[in-house]
């Protein structure tokens, strides 16, 4: 059968979610078929990006896995480059073969890079579940968990926290306390302790990821590759041991790979993330700290900074012990960081920040002048 006949055959299926469709295991559904319809008329093939490597990518298409050049999809915005998980329209044949366009993303997980330009970086596209993997081999860093959660909520995916290497915490009571600690910083998010060594929690995790696309996120040494191999039922991803001194690992996974799970669902494994910079994630931050956002609604002033203002419900909650100081400081830190990132590309936000800095500076000078004046009046004669 010719390539054009294959294209007509795949586009004429009455139900794209049917198992008969070659892309169904990779997440192809009626919504994607409708979005792709204009490109099917042009004789292009639908394909999902499995991995990206130096201007080229591997895609799964109705005719199998193909290699294609991304030359025609090189936008100025780094958040719109071809990424693992994207759905694309690709040439049916040719040498080289080209990706012609990307279908609009449903979700996108992005972070800011560590470069001085603070550009955004897209890590995974069209993800339903963001699995934040946290190793129990080292001390919990709740601030880092909050940071990952903010990015996950902002992406549009449903976050899920997996506490890996649970077998290293032999005390059931101690393990339950660790789970509770994470649950307090992850409202609306399921927290699952798992162990690839003992099988603990894996049945629950398999059931959750059996539908849709999931992405594994976390620091190097968190156990993502081991977890991926366990879910896949075979050693697909290379695994390296973490250092005993601090639990950190080397970058075992160097590219983002999309893989089909044997019990249904799709998994994207990612390299370990040392830096987790926010990228325009104000909504995500608000979701992570939903209890603080709710308290803020009760403050006397709508623009309360939750510092020393009278009638502040947030600081009152800190005073009575219902809100931890660490939690409030983390909230402030992430909001400030996100504002700085946004200000680099948004003139209005820059102007607002400058206005706020000037106001605080004036207030500080006024306070110092008042203090000096009072001191002069009270000085002995």
Task: Walk me through the structure.
The protein has 11 helices and 13 strands. It has 381 residues and is an alpha/beta fold. It has 3 domains: 3-102, OB fold (Dihydrolipoamide Acetyltransferase, E2P) (Beta Barrel), CATH 2.40.50.140; 108-269, Rossmann fold; 289-367, Ribonucleotide Reductase Protein R1, domain 1 (Orthogonal Bundle), CATH 1.10.40.50. The strands form 3 sheets. The chain has a 6-stranded mixed sheet with strand order 10-9-8-11-13-12, sandwiched between helices. Strand 8 (129-135), helix 3 (142-155) and strand 9 (158-164) form a beta-alpha-beta unit. The longest helix is centred in the C-terminal third of the chain and has 32 residues, at 347-378. It starts with a helix and ends with a helix.
Secondary-structure map:
Blueprint: H1 3-11, H2 30-41, E1 45-53, E2 56-61, E3 64-69, E4 87-90, E5 99-102, E6 108-112, E7 120-125, E8 129-135, H3 142-155, E9 158-164, H4 172-184, E10 190-193, H5 202-209, E11 213-217, H6 224-232, E12 257-260, E13 266-269, H7 282-288, H8 290-296, H9 313-319, H10 325-343, H11 347-378
Parallel strand pairs: 8-9, 8-11, 9-10, 11-13
Antiparallel strand pairs: 1-2, 1-4, 2-3, 4-5, 6-7, 12-13
Helix pairs in contact: 3-7, 7-8, 10-11
**CATH topology (fold) name of the largest domain:** Rossmann fold
SSE class: alpha/beta
Number of strands: 13
Q: Give the strand line-up of the largest sheet.
A: 10-9-8-11-13-12
Share of residues in helices: 25-40%
Report the CATH C-level class of the largest domain. Answer: Alpha Beta
Give the C-alpha Rg: 25 Å
Rounded average pLDDT:
83
CATH superfamily of the largest domain: P-loop containing nucleotide triphosphate hydrolases
Strand content: 15-25%
CATH architecture of the largest domain: 3-Layer(aba) Sandwich
> What is the N-to-C succession of helices and strands?
HHEEEEEEEEHEHEHEHEEHHHHH
Tally of distinct domains: 3
Total number of helices: 11
Molecular shape: globular
Largest sheet: 6 strands, mixed
Q: Enumerate the spans where pLDDT stays under 50 for 5 or more consecutive residues.
A: 1-18, 240-253, 375-381
Q: What is the distance, rounded to the nearest whole angstrom, between the alpha carbons of the first and last residues?
A: 105 Å
